[in-house]
């Protein structure tokens, strides 16, 4: 009887341990403190680790007062240049630029990737291309926004270029950006995909104001490109499928 009770106790412990293992949640990433230094440190750490997730403090606006990346060719960037695959796990977050100096918000190298979830990038301003994001790698936005960014060149919100470059927007907005040309999106010899997304209210000096696309591929799925000036897509070197005006 004693032996039987012992076996039952061991079996019960095993079941409990197994149940506990199944029910335990995955290890959560600690949220990055709501300040510039902590955010920059987190991005550098993710780059050094070969990629990772940067979890943002819910509702925090991270204001960048200086640039923390510069490849010596394309001008300064607020965040350290993204050289690995980094996910910014947000919750009503904004990453923006203080008004004192000009720099874009993010630059993604050929080896890098940036995924934004519930994050807005705003206020970037560059003298070259890509006021919000300059992309040579992979950009993915889900439930996110590029707004009020500016480029003196092409691509107010984003300039995505090169065979390795892909920009994917899902349930995201590109709104109220400005540029000399393509105030919204510029995709050059790259892959562009919009699904359930909106490109609107962007203003350029010359057309198109919404999407500038040349070579590569461009796909619009249940997405709208409207109210951009001087045009939405007219004047794009390659026609943008599904974009009118």
Can you give keywords for this protein?
245 residues; mainly beta; 5-stranded parallel sheet; 23 strands; globular; disordered N terminus
Word description of this protein:
The chain has 245 residues and is mostly beta strands. The chain has one domain. 14% of the residues lie in helices and 41% in strands. It has helices at residues 2-23, 36-48, and strands at residues 52-55, 61-64, 69-70, 76-77, 85-97, 106-108, 113-122, 125-126, 133-135, 138-142, 145-147, 150-154, 158-161, 166-170, 173-175, 178-181, 185-188, 191-195, 198-200, 203-206, 211-214, 217-221, 224-226. The strands form four sheets. Strands 1, 2, 5, 7, 10, 11, 14, 15, 18, 19, 22 and 23 form a twelve-stranded parallel beta sheet that branches. It has a five-stranded parallel beta sheet with strand order 6-9-13-17-21, with no helix packed on it. The longest helix has 22 residues, at 2-23. The model is unreliable at 1-27 (pLDDT under 50).
Outline the biggest β-sheet: 12 strands, parallel
Count of extended strands:
23
Number of helices: 2
Low-confidence stretches: 1-27
Into how many domains do the coordinates divide? 1
Helix and strand layout, with pairings?
Elements (H helix, E strand, L loop, with lengths): L1 H22 L12 H13 L3 E4 L5 E4 L4 E2 L5 E2 L7 E13 L8 E3 L4 E10 L2 E2 L6 E3 L2 E5 L2 E3 L2 E5 L3 E4 L4 E5 L2 E3 L2 E4 L3 E4 L2 E5 L2 E3 L2 E4 L4 E4 L2 E5 L2 E3 L19
């Amino acid at each position: 009887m004693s032996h039987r009770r012992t076996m039952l106790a061991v079996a019960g412990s095993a079941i409990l341990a197994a149940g506990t293992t199944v029910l335990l949640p995955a290890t959560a990433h600690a949220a990055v403190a709501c300040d510039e230094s902590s955010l920059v440190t987190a991005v550098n750490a993710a780059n050094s680790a070969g990629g990772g997730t940067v979890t943002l403090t819910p509702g925090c606006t991270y204001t960048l007062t200086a640039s923390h990346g510069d490849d010596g060719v394309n001008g300064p960037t607020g965040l350290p240049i993204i050289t690995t695959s980094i996910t910014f796990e947000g919750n009503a977050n904004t990453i923006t630029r203080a008004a004192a100096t000009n720099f874009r918000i993010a630059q993604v190298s050929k080896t890098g990737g940036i995924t934004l979830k519930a994050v807005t990038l705003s206020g970037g301003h560059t003298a070259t291309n890509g006021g919000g994001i300059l992309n040579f790698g992979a950009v993915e936005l889900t439930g996110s926004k590029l707004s009020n960014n500016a480029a003196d060149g092409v691509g107010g919100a984003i300039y995505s270029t090169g065979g390795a470059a892909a920009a994917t927007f899902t349930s995201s907005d590109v709104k109220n950006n400005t540029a000399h040309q393509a105030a919204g999106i510029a995709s050059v010899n790259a892959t562009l995909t919009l699904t359930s997304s909106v490109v609107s209210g962007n203003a350029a000096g010359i057309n198109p104001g919404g999407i500038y696309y040349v070579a590569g591929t461009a796909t619009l799925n249940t997405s709208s490109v409207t109210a951009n000036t001087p045009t939405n897509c007219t004047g794009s070197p390659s026609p943008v499928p599904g974009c009118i005006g």
